Amino acid sequence: MICDAMGSWWPWIYFVSLILLGSFFVMNLVLGVLSGPFQLVEKIALAPIASAITPIPTHFHFGTGNFQMTFAFSYLYSEFSKEKEKIDRKELFQKQRQEKREQQDYQGYKEWIEFAVLGEEIRKSVPPEDDGEFFLTR
């Protein structure tokens, strides 16, 4: 009776509602399961940042008084300048570390070329009648 020759709208209602409600249920389930570990990671990752930021004191109000507004803005400016100093120090450290790494790479490359030149000089100094293989060892 549901699927007669003329067709019926009951299967459409049944399957479309099943697909829509099922997809919402599955998406909720998947997103809920996947977002759980990220919330834990976010708490762990942001804990040092949250402890480093000092909140604005509650007794300072943004009133109409010029002094209160100036003090609040100077407080915010000092907080932002502290963060900017941290960022500047971090960038300077990364730049110095990169320069040190490049210097070490350059030294290694220079030693490698000097070793190859020394090996070439030693190879040229071996008499031509010697048929033995000659290997350089450090």
UniProtKB/TrEMBL annotation:
Pfam families: Ion_trans. Keywords: Calcium, Calcium channel, Calcium transport, Ion channel, Ion transport, Membrane, Transmembrane, Transmembrane helix, Transport, Voltage-gated channel. The chain crosses the membrane at residues 12-34. It is a multi-pass membrane protein. One of its GO terms (molecular function) is high voltage-gated calcium channel activity. GO terms for cellular component: voltage-gated calcium channel complex. InterPro entries: Ion_trans_dom, VDCC_alpha-1_subunit. It is found in: Membrane. The keyword Transport applies. Residues 4-42 form the Ion transport domain. It comes from the Eukaryota. Its main location: membrane. GO terms for biological process: calcium ion import across plasma membrane. This is Ion transport domain-containing protein. The lineage of its organism: Eukaryota, Metazoa, Spiralia, Lophotrochozoa, Platyhelminthes.
